[in-house]
What does this fold into?
Amino acid sequence: MLPLLELQTAFGRCLLDADVAPPAGIVGDAGERLAVYRNTTFLTLTRLLRSVFPVVCRLVDERFFDFAAHSFIRRHPPRARCLSQYGADFADFLAGFAPAASVPCLPDMARLEWAISRVTIAPTAPALDIGQLAAAGSTDPAGLRLTLQPGCAHLASPHPVDRIWQAHQADAAPEPVAPDPCGTWLEIVAGEHLVLRRLAPPAWHFRQRLADGATLGAAAEAALQHDSAFDLAAALATLFAEGLVVGLTG
It folds into this structure.
């Protein structure tokens, strides 16, 4: 009989791969019983991925999605106890999944849907007033760090993924979406309603850097690199007015 940890590890391997022999120590008709567990596991995880990535599924149809999902599940089994965290690697998997290459927007659509799934379950923190920025008391405002709402994410894509996403909602008849030569710079915000907000590239880089923990000075520099006329004061006023700033440190 294998030690418990080794038995569990071996069981997990054969559960996700029918070509792996059942571990020693499983009595009876192990193959038949494992097949039942295997089918249940793949069915459960595929349904979970469909629920998180519904537009990805609609873009390729259910049979192709299930094929891709099964390949993903075999290569990326769940690592956390909480299944709500499963699927974080799906977009990167699709980017390298050769059969999906004919739908170039698919990885970024998966990134958008993953971001939506994250922000919609994130808590909402009390927003700060812009007056608290002046009251922060820092001798070097450029060194301040602004914490943004947990339910806020940023995505840049060469594809109009927000419009494609909207066009493929369950209650909408899909319509052709024209390419956007300037690319798409999105802020995804959850509150009372989900908001997919298009930003100008300088504003996007400013907010994205802040969300990643950069100082105010570093975030402003990133924006200025894209537009030397970037208005920091106006950008800060808008950020606070939208209720996105929840913390100040520095």
Q: What stands out?
A: The mean pLDDT is 87. The chain has two domains: 1-103, 124-250. The first strand starts at residue 145 and ends at 148. The beta strands are 145-148, 152-157, 184-190, 194-198, 245-249.
